[in-house]
Amino acid sequence: MIAESVRAIWCRELQRDDISVDDNFFALGGQSVIMATIQRHFIEELGVEVPMDQMFLNPTVASISAYIESLGAVTQQ
Question: SUPFAM superfamilies per the record (predicted)?
Answer without folding.
Answer: ACP-like
